[in-house]
## 1
Amino acid sequence: MFNTDWKPNKSSPVPLHKQITDFMKEKIANGEWTIGYKLPPQRTWAKRLEVNRSTIVTAYDELIAEGLIEGKSGSGTRVINNTWNLLATTPPPDWNSYVKFGTHQPNLPTIQEINHAEFTPNIIRLGTGELSPNLIPSQFMKKIFQQLSNKEISYGYEEPKGLLPLREQIAIYLKSIGVHASPSSILIVSGALQALQLISVGLLHRGSTVLTEKPSYLHSLNVFQSAGMRLMGIPMDKEGIQTKLIPAYKKQQNAALLYTIPTFHNPTGTLMTFERRKQLLDTCQQEQLPLIEDDVYRELWLDENPPKPIKAFDKHGLVLYLGSLSKSLSPGLRIGWIVGPEPVVEHLADIKMQTDYGSSSLSQWAAAEWFSSGLYHEHLQEVRKQLKTRRDFTLNTLNKYFSDLAVWDKPTGGFYIWLRLLPSISMRKLFEMALTEGILLNPGNVYDHKAEQFLRISYAFASLTSIEDGLKRLSKIIKLIAK
């Protein structure tokens, strides 16, 4: 994925094409652009650097003449030499081949584009799944760290399962939502994403199949696929994953486990009903199919408390339960937890120690303080109030500009509205045109390759003004493409 913050200095006496040539030579000489690296198309370069395409053509021609790059019709322009390689008899390693054959698969191209575009100044992020900076309690956070400064805390490594005072606080919190777990059956992780990574390398065989909802956030990641697993989606209805289909899918796919987000599902916003949760647990028990319950959105209910976690009814240690502070408090703390049978938790803790020697000690102390001080509960009440206002505003805005363009359901919590577009249009074209207009979208096909006519709209991140402006302009782009 091409990404650079550098731009030529248009007030410099050095010609623009020479500045660009020197910049590219430096990238090649420093080994940042290795042999085999594919250069961006000339139009992309010109647009990013805000120069005429002819300026880029001149710069490319100079590097081709020096034998550093080569352009081929149909396959683009690539680095074929570096300054050392021109002098040496033994060529340097082709790092591109190492990257290509590494174990961990890269993000989907659209996800890579989204990850880079998120840092473009003033872009309207209509799909971002995190709290707005305005909803992150910075004053409370300062208070927490001030309180910690007056306490005796350790700054070294913590024990493999994580800081004991934090695990004790999480055990108290879990009890309040119906999950009974001792601190010894809790593992602190750097967010729920690390939990999935540990499970994928620590509990599953290569070639295993993981069942999940269709669509699912899991399809936007390669965490299981990179460990040699396959994902298989099971259709949903308004109550959640269709449990009656699970036995057939398990048998056909020889599935190893099932992953679910039952509470304010990502990306659809669906809340699994109490009855469906019981059915899901009963079915998984009958099929001896372990269950990962990802419950990171639980505390973001807007209308009424959601049903208890599936883990609350688990009497056989079938469910691995994931929680996190990333969605409800701050993604920067990187604090989450896995709750499960002690032998499983101990095994995953051992792998985590091999990976990173434990999550940040300072973050763990801060998280423990959030829970023990009562500030987390106080913050949640405020964030729910703000998110409810944002959800209602976004629904009203959609009614205003999308009543004839899309259909959607009202979510009762979480961050997302799952928008199904009525005109049949190219999602790629919509994504690119919106990006040109300064609007960043999360297309449905990153969560399910067949969800071509869907968008994940988030009411959590962008300001209310930006949400209205972005949706208004997006409706015009859709109408333009649909003509």
## 2
Amino acid sequence: MSLAILRSRALAGMQAPEVAVEVHVSNGLPAFSLVGLPDVEVREARDRVRAAILSSGFDFPARRITVNLAPADLPKESGRFDLPIALGILIAAGSLEATDIDGIEFAGELSLTGALRPVRGALPMALGARAAGRTFVLPASSAPEAVIAGGIDVRAATSLLDVCAHLCGQSALPRAVPASITERVACADLADVRGQRGARRALEIAAAGNHSLLMSGPPGTGKSMLAARFTGLLPDMDEAEALDTAAVLSGAGLFDPAALGRRPFRAPHHSASAAALVGGGAIPRPGEISLAHNGVLFLDELPEFDRRVLEALREPLETGHVTISRAAHRAEFPARFQLIAAMNPCPCGYLGHPSARCRCTPDQIARYRGRLSGPLLDRIDLTVVVPPLTEHELRAGPGEASVEVRQRVCAARALQQRRQGKPNQRLEAADIDRHCPLDDAAHALLAQAMNRLRLSARAYHRCLKVARTIADLNGREVIAANEVAEAVQFRRALDASAS
């Protein structure tokens, strides 16, 4: 036949819409036209496909070839369409007899030798193929990632010739098998941190309730050390969370099937742009906040980030997702990350340090801290000062190990899951009224704190959520006054350090 239609998939945010690869071979002057809103990578497929077909022992038709990637209004990117384009040319030119291709989807980048290279986004594409009820043919190095979707027949191919032999019925492609999951990597232990009881307590509360945390202190007090140990306190992801996180990382080409279920830890440099942090591009791709979905986003030297970059965090901190809009395209990515941030108390960093004199003026300190807007700070649940350590504290024995803290965190998370089906940080206003009961003393203390500290409605609710987490760690159903007092103290720790 002179026309062949094969199925593949594009990537649009977290979705993998179906793409029909239509190949028409007709008489006329030799030409190779590729239409359907392809980007540069897709247009370059013409040269890769021609070389791969010749290297595989087939004749490349010296005729007019037209390839249409439908729908025409959907942007197409990457080399994943190389394989279906090559197969379509062979079938349309009569060089390959293939039946029942309607029940198969193809994706793979071709090398000039005809070998298949891995593609980005294998998992989202496999989820789409599963919904359509089709078999999915992928490069062998990408197939283990696609198998994670479950309920789909994934075939692993190493070259164009292997796929042709499969379609002709000569030799079937092997079914892909999932990669073996490596054991949980041992995280750095919290026992390595000496002293810092207040910061350790804040870390435990943040882990138990999925709260955001900001640490402030002079250089060398252990802020980065504490943050690096935070993931070791978090409970394991459930199956749905693991699949969501894997789909985001797969879309960015960063997923390792052997690491399925590990919470991501992202720590971008403070020179990162807004697009790098939030996501962007002509065809939007996920940024650091989405790559940290269901994991931790650590921002060290928080005031050194560009103001516009920090302000871009406000919406995802509140909603758990981010929407990237372009003139002709719109994509939504999940961004339910846990923010852990660190900063110095002043530009030189030594405000309050007993062994170093701070030379920053009050105006300089105010400008430095003013880089963090009120609306952003209002969305951070916990702030804690990490003070310099004394020689006695440094020589003291190791602190409590991560394993012990993690047990309490997991117990508190399990309690929250049974009670409301989600961590305390995600409680809505109606949930707070139902699940955050206060005794009389706690209610009076919170009312007093709101009046004296002039807390916003958002800060009021976040104090309640933190108090709820503290009560869960203490095994209490009704929130007591001391738990409210601790939550309020963590709310105003940064202001207290400035005085």
## 3
Amino acid sequence: MSDARDVFVNRYRERTPGSRRHYEEAREHLPGGVPGNAGYRPPYPLYVDRAAGPYLWDIDGNRYIDSLIGGGPHILGHSPPAVMDAVAKQLSSGTSTIAPPATALALARRIRKHMPHMEMVRFVHTGSEAVHMAMRAARAFTGRSRIGKFEGNFHGGYDNLLISGTSFGGPEEAPRSLPEGAGIPQSVLDDTIVLPFNNTDATVALIERHASELAAVVVEAVGGTWLGGIVAGQSFLEALREVTARHGILLILDEVITGFRVAPGGSAEVTGIVPDLTALAKTIGGGFPMGAFGGRRDVMSRVVTPKRGPDDDRETIFQSGTFQSNLVSLTAGLAMLSELEQPGTYEKLDDLGSQVREGIAKIGANLGLPIQAVGQGSIFGVYFADEPPRTIRDVIASDRESAGTFYLGLLAHGVFITPYHLGFTNAAQDQAEIDELLDICQNVLTAIREG
């Protein structure tokens, strides 16, 4: 294993001398040499020059199949012509206003067309903000203060979201509330009930125990950043919907990743689970910053709709921002959804995703490597384990060293994806990119097997 890793590190260094030089200067100005944690990786980050379609190019001129695709928003590939044409036209007519534009109504209608449970929608800037505002609305509506979230689910970068991700403690049936990094106050941890993902009996029991305190429970139907594509069980989600509804606890479905990716109606369409509130981002912005939250009309009307004015409401939540009417993102989102509505788009995305998952699993089986390829639709994740992982505890117990070597090998051979992260297919890919990706996986996994 160490031999294969050394080979991949050396290959990466040989291909990317420009990134290495750039890193030496960048880390003097940017913590870790990157604008955000997701961009860092050892031995040093890859610095990108440009991106187009299914590819990106680094500053040394190397081309990569982009399987991260910006963390998920570029479902049509980078800079799809229809979206770029719409944005170029919009740029000559303004970029943002506080005054509400007509495009906000148009995008809200388009979202509701595919997600009828989102009866009312508010637009925000990011997925983190969307989840945060859904939680705030739930607290205001129910009068309760605590939120239930699942161990290993990732909901963004705010204090009340960075809890019990890859950090966990206590028995699985009664997880502890732990900070995911420094700077998270104890008071925030105390307001969070941590639940065991994909453990139906324990989840129901904990919700029953804390029902009078819980304003909402938030869940990812397909685990994202920390769970890398692990899918929630159908019976687990059905039991979660039943127990929350019975106790008047709002169910928040985090569809930041899955919304308009696993299906036009997201995970709600795939599973048939109807949440009370939903958080969206990524795809709905057409590659530009955009998030949204919304759901039941009675909830949104009572605690989100202003009663008198923005400065004298006390019964409703505060939700606003300088870029609440981002004309560029709204326009890009409309163009993106129009393209996704074209016949055959989701069939292609799902077929490519299935080919990647099945292809990697087959390569692993042929080489005698214990590889689990998980995911749904155009989402895939890879684990080195004897059984498919169900929880973050399974993820941490898997062979993370081999997984890290695998992802490094992909990068060194021309596939861009960050370590341990879920991957995506996109509609700009054709069979040639999938075949090339699987050929690279074959070479990398063979090297790992021989190393």
